[in-house]
Amino acid sequence: MNTAIDPGPSNRTVYAIIGLLVAIILLTAGGYLFLSGSTPAALTVGGPFLLIDGDGKPVTEQTWHGKYLLVYFGYTYCPDVCPTTLTNVADALDKLGAKADRIQPLFITVDPKRDTPPVVKEYAAAFGPRIVGLTGSAEQIAAAAKAYRVYYAEHRTGPGPDDYSMDHSSVLYLMGPDGRFIAPVRADQTGPEIAAVLARLMG
Ligand code: NI
Hints:
23% strand; globular; 7-stranded mixed β-sheet; 203 residues
């Protein structure tokens, strides 16, 4: 047997280790490429939407082009989280002074069955003149919620057609004047806290 051709047992071990290291490097590189390739997509929130405003008119994200959008998904029958959040948003905008004129808060319902245009209009107006309520067909709402990665689901509370509540994620999304996603804003903050976060994010 020619030992120059046949690596002995110890050399085989060395080759095995080298092979393993190469495999690890390739896997790591692959993982890095995979993550770096998917990270921008994973962070993409928002995008084009077609919805209906409180007057029954179609609106898109372009309707407020040039303004920051503060987007929130909820529903008007929400017992606590939505009204608390919208109260705090209205409070935050009051605290922001002139900066608030550059922000359009949008309340998008996840319950279009009950939240017709007049219902979202009246509901949003109850929190002051700034917040605009939006609704749409079930398909339009589903598409907008998907774009913003919002979870919502009907939760039955009884046998009647109106006996349900909506489970929904509760996050504010700040979109830039160019329509690009800037950052999520925690919805469980007080008005002054939200105002401080917005002021910082707007620079
Ligand atoms: Ni709610």
